[in-house]
Amino acid sequence: MADFTSIAAVCSSIARFIEFSFREQQPITGRTTSVRVLRTVDLNPDTSTLLTPPTLSLFLYRVDYNKTMRAAWSATAVYDSHSHLPLDLHFLLIPWGENADHEHRMIGRAMQCLEDTPIFSGPLLDPIATWSSQESIQVCLEDLSTEDVMRTFDSLPLDYKLSIPYLARITVLHGQRDDLVPRTASVVTGVTSEVSDE
């Protein structure tokens, strides 16, 4: 089951898949387009060294719990004694090209790839997380209003730029196993005493 590394694993899985798809067919003839997972501070084209055109950036701007599956996974926790947090990961795909045509090609090729393969499972999932054989992630276009997009860019260190919103769901962050939880204290009849870790 995927643990705390699952968020990072989803980001790298999507980036690796798009980059592999670009190698099969480059968006810009004669050029190699790179794919980068960026932080907020990396989105400043004046200071970032990661935005050399042509580059497609994958920017995780929001993590939220999945409202539909939260109750079901909470019920599961009652039976297996492990926490399960279903998450939705919200991304922006942002192209960085030398002209509008190049940026449109990068976005078009990335959208084509993700539409052809909207479900990530098995070898498409980065093994930095301990995925179970039943786990999969759906990557789909997200319906954002113009107001929501503009509000997001208001908080970023760059002016509005062509971007496509994507949603990765459902990433389930499973709790730590009992045998990995460090035991440092024991409560017996209301008195706390130190317990050896050995």
Automatic annotation (TrEMBL):
Highest taxon of the source?
Answer: Bacteria
Pfam families, alphabetized = Pvc16_N (PF14065)
- Positions of the Pvc16 N-terminal domain: 10-179
Q: Which InterPro entries match?
A: Pvc16_N
Q: Can you say what this protein is called? A: Pvc16 N-terminal domain-containing protein
Provenance organism: Candidatus Endobugula sertula
